[in-house]
Write a structure and sequence with these properties.
Structural class: alpha/beta
Distance between the termini: 49 Å
Radius of gyration: 20 Å
Number of helices: 11
Strand order of the largest sheet: 7-6-5-8-9
Number of strands: 9
Order of helices and strands: HEHEHEHEHEHEEHEHHEHH
Helix content: 25-40%
Strand content: 5-15%
Length: about 325
């Protein structure tokens, strides 16, 4: 009898869209991270662009403001040689009453190759993807998901720690309203990490354990012996009513400082997806500590990850051009 081998997943990224991390396999996530690693290793001072996406058109359609994410996608597309159009929703027909479906039909007529969409409503990006004839990347939808942020967070961790499997990651702050938290929980648990969430009871989603995370309401207990501390900002724009007594009280119990970080492992690293509220969820001294903070690395990895996602959706498994991106 011949020896049997476990079936292997096909390499690459077989999906038309990137709408979320939920549902992606470990192999698909590793493919995107490995491809992003190739782009991250290239010298950013080399301004000679790739021609990989020459002739392709990418539209950034942002219904919510996010200079960091939009600029990162724009740089990624341009470094790969694509044409980029940034649509300003504030001055578009959408503000005059045009529906999301009308917008989809209009965009389809323009024949773009890929849309990057950010929207304040959960599920809106998925709906749009069903109505257009091009690839779609979710740049963040409501409190649902932000897949490229989770990928760049994972790449930042992997490049510093060398792995994701076996690490313990604490996600702290406004978990209830955070699409970043959801995408990171999906990704990290899929990749074999242990995830804890730490928040006041008012900012913990009901049934968070179903996502594979362990919930804590005590900051020091939640941070005990963790490898990574990922802070989240208070998303006041999504809050209706009072979720915390005051900013001062919030920082006292849930803001990250040296004293609370001492509960984590001695080499624990600090992360934040930005924008940061210094003195609210994180102390400035920690945010700027080059030995402990990965925050600047996260920004740098953002362009590489988005290059990888554009590459994977538009050109599949074709290897990147050496020395060009």
């Amino acid at each position: 009898m011949s020896e049997t081998h476990p079936s292997r997943e096909p390499p690459g990224f077989p999906h038309r869209h990137l709408l979320g991390i939920e549902g992606l396999s470990r192999g698909e996530i590793e493919f995107l991270l490995d491809l992003a690693d190739v782009y991250a290793a290239k010298d950013p001072r080399d301004h000679q662009r790739s021609s990989l996406l020459s002739g392709y058109t990418v539209i950034n359609l942002f219904f919510e403001n996010s200079t960091r994410t939009r600029t990162s996608f724009e740089l990624a597309a341009k470094r790969l040689g694509a044409e980029v159009i940034n649509m300003s929703v504030a001055s578009s027909s959408i503000k005059k009453g045009e529906t999301l479906i009308d917008t989809a039909m209009t965009l389809t007529a323009m024949r773009p190759d890929l849309l990057v969409v950010r929207h304040p409503d959960s599920g809106a990006v998925s709906l749009l993807s069903e109505k257009v004839d091009c690839a779609v990347i979710n740049g963040g939808d409501g409190s649902h998901e932000h897949p490229t942020q989770a990928l760049l967070d994972a790449l930042s961790i992997r490049r510093r720690k060398g792995r994701l499997a076996g690490l313990t990651v604490a996600i702290c702050g406004d978990v209830l309203h955070s699409r970043v938290a959801r995408s990171n929980i999906y990704l990290l648990t899929t990749m074999g990490a242990q995830v804890r969430v730490i928040a006041p009871p008012t900012l913990l989603p009901a049934g968070i354990e179903r996502f594979g995370a362990q919930a804590f309401t005590d900051m020091r207990a939640g941070l005990a012996d963790v490898d990574i501390v990922m802070m989240l900002r208070l998303q006041n724009e999504r809050m209706q009513g009072s979720y915390v007594p005051s900013v001062r009280e919030y920082f006292r119990f849930y803001g990250l400082d040296q004293e609370k970080l001492a509960s984590a492992k001695p080499d624990a690293l600090v992360m934040h997806p930005g924008p940061m509220n210094r003195g609210v969820e994180i102390d400035s001294e920690l945010a700027d500590d080059i030995d402990r903070s990965l925050i600047h690395t996260q920004v740098a990895m953002g362009v590489a990850v988005r290059m990888a996602c554009l590459h994977a959706l538009l050109r599949g498994e074709e290897p990147p051009e050496e020395g060009r991106a």
